[in-house]
Amino acid sequence: MNDETQPVLPVNRRAIISLIAAVLTALSFCTAVAPIPFTGYVCYPAAVLFGLVALVTGVTALVQIRSSREEGRTHALIGIWTGAIAVLAGGCAISTGILLFPRVLALVQQHIK
Q: From CA 69, how far away is CA 59, in angstroms rounded?
């Protein structure tokens, strides 16, 4: 048998942070759907924030991984994809809220009269 082993390459720290932020993003989205009052007001913004962190740290991790001999490419890609989806979902929700606000306001005013 050969006793020589290949050296274990370290995992990029930003890739790990990106993966953790991606998991927190998914947990925040799932918690926001829970039938507990007002969780959406806290969990959706938290999910978008964690998604932004996952996206930014994932991209910087990929840049660092390309220039060094570190592992963690998969971790960074998971963070990038999860972060991008969370940021896009948050942007769609904000856009929908802005577009529907005048109609909701008119409906409330009609109901009050």
A: 16
